[in-house]
Design brief:
Blueprint lengths: L19 H9 L28 H15 L6 H11 L3 H10 L7 H12 L5 H6 L1 E7 L5 H13 L4 E6 L41 H13 L3 E6 L12 H19 L5 E4 L10
The protein binds S-adenosylmethionine.
Length: about 280
């Protein structure tokens, strides 16, 4: 981790171990807590985005080296490379095992990722348990596995909560949307279309202010929004050396939308990811 003065802030590294139990423990325990002083307040609005951009030399050097090594992957066939990374993924067996054991609705890697969050943290706010009502909003959500994962969890642990949900994503039925940014798998969406909001222009593009506002007001009209998820990602294949630059405007729009919709005491979970289509 780096401060903006360029100093490295050390953190505890998960220890390396030959023992697979320990390795598993390390994998599931990469958790960091950030503590802010109670006196901390958002800076004055006029000062936002006013500081000149700054760079951290050591990070720039690391980025160049990383991209140099990544570019050597161009010599491999994409199928061969994907098969290699799949085999190296220690979590690869998890979905297979869950499918064999419980075969839940619409199981994907996102399903397991979200279920792990639900099981690890208290994501269903106290207010939902007390009032037995909860609205959740899911931004950039196609094909919808966070919702099916949440449904599974709610059925097992919070059956008494009357749960309503609304989701947004780039509209796969809108022909002018670029196929490279969209997930066209509508197996779940097709059956739940009335719960999806594509904004005022029907594109579903959350980076359009009017769309964002219409999604916020539709979600609030359902009741108190106590959970928001945001999982937007953009295909970075054309700009693999500038992934954060490509995705950060979308993440900014997700955060602005989420914070307007969220009720006090609610939970917001955002995934900072690049496209799954890239080589990794
Ligand atoms: C990783 S997927 C989400 C997966 C989902 N959470 C799940 O569990 O199935 C990322 C989604 O972000 C959507 N997306 C990308 N850019 C967007 C934008 N500008 N507005 C709305 N959605 C966007 C994509 O269409 C895609 O459906």
């Amino acid at each position: 981790m780096f401060s903006n003065s360029g100093n490295i802030i050390l953190r505890d590294k998960p220890s390396r171990s030959d023992n697979s139990e320990d390795e598993l423990h390390d994998l599931f325990n990469k958790k960091y807590q950030f503590r802010f002083s109670d006196e901390w307040r958002l800076p004055d609005r006029d000062s936002w985005f006013s500081a000149p951009p700054w760079t951290i030399k050591i990070l720039d050097t690391m980025k160049s080296r990383l991209n140099f090594h990544k570019s050597q992957l161009n010599d491999f066939s994409i199928e061969e490379w994907s098969s290699h990374t799949r085999r190296r993924n220690p979590a690869g067996e998890v979905s297979w095992k869950i499918r064999c054991l419980i075969n839940p609705e619409f199981l994907t890697q996102a399903w397991t990722k979200f279920y792990e969050c639900l099981s690890t943290y208290k994501m269903i706010p106290e207010e939902a348990c007390i009032t037995q009502k909860m609205v959740s909003l899911h931004l950039c959500e196609a094909p919808g596995a966070f919702i099916t994962s949440l449904n599974h969890y709610m059925q097992l642990h919070h059956r008494n909560i009357e749960w309503k949900w609304l989701a947004n994503t780039l509209n796969p039925y809108y022909e002018e949307n670029s196929p490279s940014n969209m997930i066209s798998d509508d197996r779940f969406m097709f059956h739940t279309l009335s719960n999806w909001d594509f904004g005022v222009d029907n594109t579903g593009n959350l980076m359009n202010w009017d769309n964002s506002q219409s999604i916020v007001s539709k979600a609030k009209s359902l009741g108190k929004v106590l959970l928001v998820t945001a999982d937007g990602s953009i295909d970075c294949m054309q700009k693999p050396d500038a992934q954060e630059e490509v995705t950060s405007p979308l993440h900014y729009c997700e955060i602005v939308t989420a914070l307007q919709a969220l009720s006090k005491g609610g939970t917001f979970i955002i995934i900072f990811a690049q496209s799954s289509v890239q080589r990794s």
